[in-house]
From TrEMBL:
Organism: Oceanodroma tethys
Swiss-Prot/TrEMBL keywords: Acyltransferase, Lipid biosynthesis, Lipid metabolism, Phospholipid biosynthesis, Phospholipid metabolism, Transferase
InterPro entries: Acyltransf_C
Gene: Agpat5
Keyword Lipid metabolism: yes
Name of protein: PLCE acyltransferase
Length: 202
């Protein structure tokens, strides 16, 4: 079965508002003799190694994806938290930039020890891309990734069917008393469960 498996080797999000996570990541890299990264966290190799090793007979390549957001640097030049979906839809973040690099499977070391070095080198490349994106002294080079770019806009043709489906589903629920009760319960219990999950998950 054709599929994609997405892995975030850092294990958690890079959040400038939680400096302890960034500091812990950098001290781990220093302790292990690895390059200290500024705009990304130090990757851990285990899950990546297990995934690639298990799927190697079905893979021909791995895609290294780096994402950056415009409008997320404050007046002091410090990175802010990545925008939420609401902030993005309200145009507080004008564009999302995605840099994709295709790596042939044959170019990825099989042994975990060597794959660890390879993975960290990939994150060093990501870090350089993001330093250029966020911190470039030349303003013309800021908010851009190098190389040829393709601009992609969400067309009405792609978004309208989802809007009509979800809008129709919500409207049909709100037309009946039992539907309204279910709608309210979904909001209340969904929010409570979500808050509980966020507070107890490691």
């Amino acid at each position: 079965t054709q599929m994609y498996l997405v892995i975030f080797p850092e294990g958690t999000r890079y959040n400038p508002e939680i400096p302890k996570v960034i500091a812990d990541s950098q001290s781990f890299a220093e302790k292990e003799g690895l390059a200290i990264l500024k705009h990304v966290l130090t990757p851990r190799v285990k899950a990546t190694h297990v995934a690639i090793d298990t799927m190697k007979d079905y893979l021909d390549a791995v895609y290294d994806v780096t994402v950056a957001y415009e409008g997320t640097v404050d007046h002091k030049g410090q990175r802010k938290l990545a925008p939420s979906m609401t902030e993005f839809l309200c145009k507080e973040c004008p564009r999302v930039h995605i840099f994709i690099d295709r790596i042939e499977l044959k170019d990825i070391p099989e042994e975990q020890m060597y794959m660890r070095r390879w993975l960290h080198e990939r994150f060093e490349i990501k870090d350089k891309l993001l330093i250029e994106f966020y911190d470039a002294k030349d303003s013309k080079r800021r908010n851009k990734f190098p190389g040829k770019s393709v601009h992609s806009k969400l067309s009405l043709k792609k978004t309208l069917p989802s809007l009509l489906f979800l809008g129709g589903l919500t409207a049909s629920m709100l037309l009946t008393e039992s539907g309204r009760k279910l709608y309210v319960k979904t909001w209340i219990y969904g929010t409570l469960i979500g808050c509980l999950w966020v507070s107890i998950k490691p």
